[in-house]
Amino acid sequence: MFSIHKLKADHSIIGLVPALVSLFITALIGIFFGREAAFTFLAMVFWGFSVYTFIGFWRTGNKYFIVPVLYLFFAGFVIYFEDPSFRGNPPPAIALALLFTVVFLLGTIYLLLTKKVKWRGREILEMAAAPIEETGDGYTNRPMPGGKTSFSKQQIVEFAEFASRNLIAIPFIGDNKVVFVPLMMGREFGYILGLKKDYMDGTWVSFDFDGNVSVNISHRDYMQYQEALSFDQLCISMGDLFIDFIETFQRGDGVRIIDRMNSMHVGIFS
Amino acid sequence: MDFKQAALLGNYLSKDYTKDFFRLLVNYQDISASEAASRLGLHIRTAQDFLEAMEELGVLAKEEVYEKKRPYFRYRIRTKQIRMELDLTTIEQAQTPASLSRQIREKPKAKASFSLARGGEYISQVSLWTGDGRDRKERKISLTRPQGLFLYQLPFPNAEPLSIVEIMNKANIAEQLAPEILDIVEVLKSYDVLELKTEV
Questions:
Q1: What ipTM score was computed for the predicted complex, to two decimals?
Q2: Interface test with B, best of A137, A139, A142, A198 (most B CBs within 10 A)
Q3: Is A206 on the interface with B (CB under 8 A)?
Q4: What does the pLDDT read at residue A218?
């Protein structure tokens, strides 16, 4: 299926920055402190990313994160015990770790290609913009009241768990409402590490338990669109999208939501 | 008494010497500025200003006298009761059906930023900018809860405008709170943040 993208092309490399910085530091350590120190540092980096990915699994409930967690753990193990003398005849433990590394690496690549570990913020913004033809800007940093729904608290909370598991949005569950914050790839670090607890300046959709829906689209995300789409229509569309998501999920068709997002043909790293 | 007169009276009532000054005035038949200044240990200019201000407010009467030298004024008390009465209804926000039926919405590219309250249910503060570059000035206005609820429901710049009363109804704001809503509407209009239907 062909889909017209309304967002600008994503050339951001922010998601690769931690890996590139780690490699750069590893190279510097190798130059100044020798090969063993560099490999020790690199192993620590892999284990650090493994812990970070495990926190992602713990916070979101996305079970697919376990595969990259294990890949990063075993890769770190192999790097840490890397020794030229093992070449051609590695000890059984290292050989087993190497086998696991390759298996879990292939698993991780599969999950990346099938978008099972992809944050879906970009798909959400594309889907919200899809029905909007009118342009006219009109941006404001106020949230838009998006009408009323009759969802129960349980229905909203159940969808929040689904959205979290499938990386559709980070849910903030409060006493009287649930706020869904869709995240693009590369913007999840602060939320995963618990450093960013305030969603106010981001894009979010809020469902309170009295049925009121509010939508906020951040200026940063609005600027991602190629055209200045009619802002009030975009907010209404975003609210309608999440209402439709909850209705679809309540019918037991949650997988259709994922299918619709996959059909937007957004790149795996954007 | 209007606000200007009240401010003048309040200013002089707050001085340390005022009670002693009035003690002289109620006990003396009349007194000149130099006599009062020497008696109270004040600069003659201070005494002169006080007496002139009280005369302007109608508390004192003054009479020009000649005693073989250049003329000067003697002051005597006119009333032994000073009442400060301000009519606040004169500055109450006018609330007519026409003022509430004006249709409004946010103006495109308004120089304003809205901050949400912690719970996210209403706007808690609005920042307004004037000028550009180095001359840019920011003014922050903390909103009452009804004002915050009202601005939460304000139509977006390219949405259909709504009347003030319709927005109040959407925000569940009681009609008796209209004056404070009209006040913030006037402030935002003066900063070019809102547009009225006639301008739309």
A1: 0.76
A2: A142
A3: yes
A4: 94
